From TrEMBL:
It comes from Candidatus Iainarchaeum sp. This is NAD(P)/FAD-dependent oxidoreductase. InterPro entries: FAD/NAD-bd_sf, Geranylgeranyl_reductase. Coiled coil: none annotated.
Length: 272
């Protein structure tokens, strides 16, 4: 992420207009003022791309917290393929995964929403109980990451003079805090803000319409799939994979022909 941030910064023309080491402590939507740790500044359009927003800011915007899952991931020196592990006892509400992140480097992880008080030790144990990931239990752990990932969207993402984007606005039911979603939201927001500053639109609430046109159908499909998988039992998954094991289906991972076939067949078992 740091490389991406520097790339964006270096491509900007008016770098002098960027404030560093300013922490936003409050804002006044009526006066169009942002208060930072070093002063107050007027704004025309306020964009909140702050990751997980604090309760104070959410109350001011009158928006709720999105649903989230707790995720635990470990980086290892190994080679493997993109893999998704469905397991509704250990990873209900999300899944386990393997993602290649560099030469001889992978990330393995697990996300779940069925723990009241999640902690890293519990998730570490769950991670290495997952089928196919047990083999990595005694590998040296180069880096560990843990935290919450949003898996639903807030209903209100903009108003007259503000827009919420990225993880602050929520995440995708199947993918969580997708970088692709965040980039697309930033692009839509920039278009709306440009029109707003040129008086082509009277309010930033226009963002809601453009967001729905771009993401609406995909989010609806992901919610349907997520609900279906959450209702399934592990024996359903076992039957599906047994049924598919001799079929010539290309692709591995999450969003591909293999996964779509899994979902279709899981639906048959859940509804039967």
């Amino acid at each position: 992420m740091e490389d991406i941030e520097w790339h964006v910064f270096n491509s900007l023309k008016n770098k002098n207009n960027i404030l560093f080491e300013h922490n936003v402590v409050d804002f006044d939507l009526n006066a169009n003022v942002v208060k930072t740790s070093k002063g107050e500044f007027k704004f025309k359009a306020l964009v909140l791309a702050t990751g997980v927003l604090g309760v104070k800011f959410r109350d001011k915007l009158e928006i709720s917290h999105p649903k989230s899952v707790f995720c635990y991931a470990v980086e290892l020196n190994a080679n493997d393929e993109i893999t998704t592990i469905l397991h509704n006892d250990l990873a209900k509400g999300f899944y386990g995964w393997i993602i290649p992140i560099g030469e001889n480097r992978i990330e393995i992880g697990i996300g779940a929403n069925n723990l009241q008080n999640p902690n890293q030790k519990e998730f570490h144990n769950r991670l290495f109980k997952l089928p196919y990931l047990r083999k990595y239990k005694f590998h040296k752990h180069e880096r560990i990451n843990a935290g919450y990932i949003p898996t639903s969207m807030i209903e209100k993402k903009s108003n007259h003079n503000w827009i919420v984007i990225g993880d602050a606005a929520g995440g995708e039911p199947m993918l969580g805090g997708s970088i692709h979603k965040c980039i697309d939201e930033a692009s839509i927001a920039s278009e709306v803000i440009s029109d707003f500053l040129k008086y082509k639109v009277s309010s930033l609430s226009e963002y809601e319409k453009k967001w729905e046109a771009h993401f609406g159908e995909e989010m609806k499909n992901q919610k349907t799939v997520r609900s279906l998988l959450d209702k399934a039992k592990n024996e359903h998954f076992d039957k599906v994979f047994k049924k598919l094991q001799n079929q010539p289906i290309d692709g591995k991972g999450l969003i591909n022909d293999l996964f779509r076939n899994i979902v279709i067949n899981v639906k048959e078992h859940v509804e039967s």
